[in-house]
Amino acid sequence: MAQDSWPTSDVCNSSSSLLPTDSLRSESPFQNKGQSGRILTNEELEKLQRDQTLVSDFKQNKLEKEAQKNWDLFYKRNTTKFFKDRHWTTREFEELKACRKFDAQRLVLLEAGCGVGNCIFPLLAEDANIFVYACDFSPRAVEFVRENPLFCSERCKVFQCDLTTEDLQANIQADSVDVATLIFVLSAIHPDKMRLTLENIYRVLKPGGIVLFRDYGLYDHAMLRFKSGNKLGENFYVRQDGTRSFFFSRELLAELFTGVGFQSLVNEYVMRETVNKKEGLCVPRVFLQSKFRKPD
Q1: According to the model, what pLDDT value does residue 283 have?
Q2: What is the DSSP letter of 14?
């Protein structure tokens, strides 16, 4: 589903309000993590305060009904060439390596919202003792995963799934997953259905299992680039291609997870500056990076 990086052409043409990392040729080597979010300038505050007009209920209902179609069209247009592989996950989330009692133990991973496999294939290549359940909203994305030369049915089970309506237990045994990842996925789901997604994941996680989360944080530059007429609700926006994006605060995210029964282990903002040399821009990025645990 949603991803963390959008090329410049997409910003200008189909997304209009997202500044991606893939097109940003230079990033600051430093990132700050902490519980304090980004402080807006007076000009930025005024912009957000002026933008109070919401997309009509008719269009919002249409976007919800066509959410899967819009993501499928996204992958039809962009195939597997849109996003970079995520080689940073094991650096940021040690649980992808350390969540074992002994070295030879197989780690069972759920990649919820796998896209075309930019996260799972680097993990499978790096660690022979990982088995991955991978699912995505888009049937076309699932097919791209299956067609990847690195795909191996003995190490990966991939299936199409709407996390808000379809029970993961149809494909995954209850209480069987060590680690689940939600990386730039929950932001693409309507806020009213986010809890259903987390409940679905909770059921297949082992007691003591971990959810690794990374997604758009409140006041990320992408949020401030949305023009008037794209607002769906509080911190919730639609791109020109019909895909949607929510921007999380620490407090709201913690409330969502703990309301389902998870324990909060880490929940912090990640702030960095990214430079787009082509456009001559230096922009502040804000993400939320968190870890939540299913109690024993």
Answers
A1: 85
A2: I
